[in-house]
């Protein structure tokens, strides 16, 4: 494990810098849109454009990797993402921002594919879960700390956009100077969505619901907070508390799902998130109560993606997992595209508290569908369940599975060559 970590430091540092910049940018744009008096529904559509680009990037990047390799792909996408961040202050217009966010989403998905497939290639079967757990902490930690950088400048100025560009540009440096060889893998064969749904209805619907919820929060939380008259410092700490909550309970929730019926754990966690969202809408909390509820809400909702993916893999053969993971990226990406637009429309109709009414309804729907599936299908014995692997929100699971496939093949080749 120590040797694997030594070979992965560049990836961890690069992705940490990337998350500092992109996380800051997401919140900054929500505040800047409010200052520019963008209509709430228009801001929602701008944020949805990011996830549309993300969806395209997650499916196209493996093809690019096969042609030009990991290092050149990462460098090109990071440079493009850095330039896109600066364009937001050149043209302040919802339509232009939508196009820029589309490009940004494409770039960020591609950077995830590069980092995660490379990381999985470095891991052995015995260390993969731990290594991805560390990656998740680096990623969510970078996202949380990126929120605090909002206090270094004024949202109405240009300095914070320059900071974003610098951080994204710096993220490519550790990757370019690493001595580790880049992985090589073939493109995965697609799996029909209907076949995946028949294998795991809850996994497919769960990933769509989680994409809808997480896309709504990450795309619209800053707008919600601005409408609640929180200042930039309070907004940064609010979103950071949510992300730190997601780090806190990943391991215990994952361990519980490995030991018991994973559907029961998923339903309990989704129910907790629904109740916390409803409490948010009812109380409109401020001060320490706001941060406490944000922390608990993040602790409940952020592990749901990993639970849905793990449940899906429980019902797939190893040969199906790569294609199945690609389909889950599509499903969760569609949900994430709809999320901010729906949140913007609901807030326009109901006011700021409608944001958490929307999140409560989405999580409640996940609970209801999980309960229905528990009635329709008997539980899978805990001994037959695969291991839970913590995955960050919006992670490109297809990249993880592609990298794992390369490593599994190398393990098998090594076993065949070893003397008996």
Largest sheet: none
What is the ordering of alpha helices and beta strands?
HHHHHHHHHHHHHHHHH
Alpha-carbon Rg, integer: 20 Å
CATH class: Mainly Alpha
CATH topology: Growth Hormone, Chain: A
Mean pLDDT: 80
Task: Work out the count of structural domains.
Answer: 1
CATH superfamily, by name, is: MFS general substrate transporter like domains
The total strand number stands at 0
What is the element layout, followed by pairings?
Elements: H1 2-35, H2 40-68, H3 70-90, H4 94-122, H5 128-148, H6 159-170, H7 172-177, H8 193-199, H9 201-227, H10 232-248, H11 250-259, H12 262-283, H13 287-301, H14 304-314, H15 318-350, H16 354-376, H17 397-417
Helix pairs in contact: 1-4, 1-5, 1-6, 1-9, 2-3, 2-4, 2-9, 2-15, 3-4, 3-6, 4-17, 5-10, 8-9, 9-10, 9-14, 9-15, 9-16, 10-13, 11-12, 12-13, 12-14, 12-16, 15-17
How would you sum up this structure, described in words?
The chain has a single domain, classed as MFS general substrate transporter like domains (Growth Hormone, Chain: A), CATH 1.20.1250. Residues 394-407 have low confidence and may be disordered. The protein has helices spanning 2-35, 40-68, 70-90, 94-122, 128-148, 159-170, 172-177, 193-199, 201-227, 232-248, 250-259, 262-283, 287-301, 304-314, 318-350, 354-376, 397-417. The protein is built from 17 helices and no strands. The longest helix is centred in the N-terminal third of the chain and has 34 residues, at 2-35. With 420 residues, the protein is mainly α.
């Amino acid at each position: 494990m120590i040797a694997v970590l030594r070979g992965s430091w560049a990836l961890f540092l690069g992705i940490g810098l990337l998350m500092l910049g992109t996380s800051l940018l997401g919140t900054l744009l929500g505040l800047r849109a409010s200052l520019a008096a963008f209509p709430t529904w228009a801001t929602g559509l701008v944020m949805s454009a990011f996830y549309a680009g993300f969806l395209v990037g997650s499916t196209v990047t493996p093809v690019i990797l096969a042609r030009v390799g990991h290092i050149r792909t990462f460098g090109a996408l990071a440079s493009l993402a850095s330039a896109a961040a600066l364009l937001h202050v050149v043209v302040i217009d919802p339509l232009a921002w939508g196009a820029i966010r589309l490009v940004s989403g494409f770039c960020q998905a591609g950077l995830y594919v590069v980092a995660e497939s490379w990381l999985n290639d470095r891991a052995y079967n015995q260390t993969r879960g731990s290594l991805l757990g560390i990656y998740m902490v680096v990623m969510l930690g970078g996202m949380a700390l990126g929120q605090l950088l909002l206090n270094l400048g004024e949202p109405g100025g240009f300095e914070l956009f320059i900071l974003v560009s610098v951080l994204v540009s710096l993220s490519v440096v550790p990757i370019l100077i690493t001595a580790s060889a880049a992985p090589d893998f073939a493109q995965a064969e697609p799996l029909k969505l209907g076949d995946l749904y028949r294998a795991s209805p809850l996994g497919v619907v769960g990933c769509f619901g989680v994409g809808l919820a997480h896309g709504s929060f990450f795309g619209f939380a800053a707008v919600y907070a601005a409408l609640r008259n929180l200042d930039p410092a309070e907004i940064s700490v609010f979103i950071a508390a949510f992300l730190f909550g997601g780090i806190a309970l990943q391991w215990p929730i994952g361990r519980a799902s490995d030991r018991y019926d994973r559907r029961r754990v998923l339903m309990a966690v989704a129910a907790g998130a629904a109740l916390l969202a409803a409490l948010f809408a009812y109380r409109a909390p401020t001060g320490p109560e706001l941060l406490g509820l944000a922390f608990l809400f993040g602790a409940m909702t952020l592990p749901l993606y990993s639970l849905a993916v793990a449940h899906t893999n429980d019902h797939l053969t190893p040969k199906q997992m790569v294609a199945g993971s690609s389909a889950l990226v599509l499903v969760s990406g569609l949900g994430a595209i709809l999320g901010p637009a729906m949140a913007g429309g609901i807030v326009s109709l109901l006011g700021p508290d409608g944001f958490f009414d929307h999140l409560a309804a989405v999580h409640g729907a996940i609970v209801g569908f999980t309960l229905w599936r528990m009635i329709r299908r008997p539980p899978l014995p805990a001994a037959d369940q695969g291991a839970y692997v913590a995955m960050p929100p919006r992670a490109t699971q297809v990249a993880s599975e592609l990298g794992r496939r390369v490593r599994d093949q190398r393990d098998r080749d090594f076993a065949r060559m070893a003397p008996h």
